[in-house]
Specification:
mainly alpha; globular; 5 strands; two-stranded antiparallel sheet; 3-stranded mixed beta sheet; 417 residues
Length: 417
């Protein structure tokens, strides 16, 4: 026998299916990505003593039909219902992403990119500090600890060895032959994760910190939330990250590194450097100027190219434009950390766990509470190891909450040391 809510669930299930179909080809990172040949050409020119701006022709897609369908889905969704409000929010952000990608290769990418991912000068939640302030602070700490140079790995884990080690870990979590770990020689980032596949960049030296961060970040957040999203009874779209949820998902992944003890100061330094690089690009610096800046901060040639191309994906390399996605990592980390402390203070462990039920934004975890209660949202099937150890998580958050009450200006003679 159908419950009174069943017709509404059926309606939103159908709308969500339409959303999934509409956004199938709106693949932001694939469309703005550079092929590995661009890097090889730049580095070859560099080897011969020439710093030449990279050259790459984009093929701008036409998403007018998808944008029209997303507008129709939003119009059909009831904003007064939590599921309807979610679909409207997500459809709107996918429309923004579609407009951004239609402008690929031009400075028209910048404005929608900022709308989706923010800009370095944006204020962080709960204060007047900005993302730039946070980035500069972490860089100062890193410079004090290591004289500003990014440390080299003490030893190299070959991609093939790391693949086998990660495969064993994901098999233990998700079941054998559920998620494949593969080496991709064309991948520009060190790793990328989806619901059924984790890719590692080929011919790359990985460190022990890389291994731990990859498991915490890619496997036990990005892959985990994708698989939980697939298991949702109504909102299957939660298996993909809506552009509006990017900051939460990346922030949650870096927070997972922090909670699992996988993050190091070099990682925070790299994240912070990218934020300042975005600010430089927006202020007019071209690709070569930003590349030189990364080199001056201790990154090797290949990593400096990689970090710089992340800023100029999809936009002209001549300066004044930027793809601002890397802005979300630090802002997202700080926002997610604040959310977890807030939820812990109010004894809402359920909200912390709900955040892993799919590719949710923070506001979704709160707005969809009635749907978790009535069963139209399923609790997460998988949870990362660090949140399953709830007593350890509670200790870290409790300590953090109390430590915030200590005023550094009242420490007396310590300042004389």
């Amino acid at each position: 026998m159908q419950t009174p809510r069943a017709p509404a669930r059926k309606r939103y299930t159908e709308l969500d299916k339409r959303l999934v179909r509409a956004v199938r080809d709106i693949r932001v990172l694939d469309i703005v990505a550079w092929p590995a040949a661009v890097e090889r050409r730049f580095l070859d020119d560099l080897h011969h003593g020439h710093e030449i701006l990279p050259r790459f022709e984009y093929h701008a897609p036409d998403f007018s039909a998808q944008r029209a369908e997303l507008a129709a889905i939003a119009a059909a969704a009831d904003a007064s219902h939590p599921l309807g409000a979610y679909l409207r929010r997500s459809a709107a952000s996918w429309q923004t992403a579609a407009r951004m990608l239609e402008a690929v290769g031009t400075d028209g990418v910048t404005t929608p990119s900022i709308e989706l991912y923010g800009r370095p000068g944006d204020a962080l939640p709960g204060g007047t500090q900005t993302n730039l302030d946070a980035a500069r602070w972490f860089l100062e700490i890193a410079e004090e600890l290591g004289n500003g140079a990014l440390p080299e790995a003490e030893y190299c884990i070959p991609a093939e060895v790391l693949r086998d080690e990660v495969q064993a870990e994901v098999d233990a979590c998700f079941g054998a032959a559920t998620v494949r770990v593969e080496i991709d020689p064309e991948l520009t980032s060190k790793a990328a994760a989806g619901a059924t596949r984790i890719r590692l960049r080929g011919a790359t030296c990985f460190s022990e910190y890389d291994r731990s961060q990859l498991l915490a970040h890619e496997a036990f957040v990005h892959t985990l939330t994708a698989r939980n999203g697939r298991a949702q009874p109504v909102l299957k779209s939660l298996s993909r990250t809506a552009p509006r949820a990017t900051a939460t998902q990346e922030g949650l992944a870096v927070f997972a590194e922090l909670m699992s003890g996988s993050i190091d100061i070099a990682r925070l330094q790299r994240i912070s450097l990218r934020i300042l690089a975005i600010d430089m690009a927006l202020s007019g610096a071209d690709f070569v100027e930003v590349y030189r800046w990364f080199r001056a901060h201790g990154q090797n040639v290949a990593d400096s190219f990689y970090s710089t191309q992340r800023v100029y994906r999809g936009v002209p390399v001549t300066g004044g434009a930027a793809f601002t996605k890397d802005n979300v990592y630090l802002a997202g980390l700080l926002t997610v950390h604040t959310f977890f402390r807030w939820a812990f203070k109010r004894r809402r462990l359920d909200l912390m766990q709900h955040l892993f039920a799919g590719k949710l934004a923070l506001e979704d975890a709160i707005a969809l509470r009635p749907c978790f209660a009535d069963g139209s949202m399923a609790p997460p099937k998988y949870l990362p190891p660090w949140i399953q150890r709830s007593q350890g998580l509670a200790a870290k958050l409790a300590f953090s909450l109390f430590a915030n009450k200590i005023r550094m200006g009242r420490l007396g003679d310590w300042d004389q040391v």
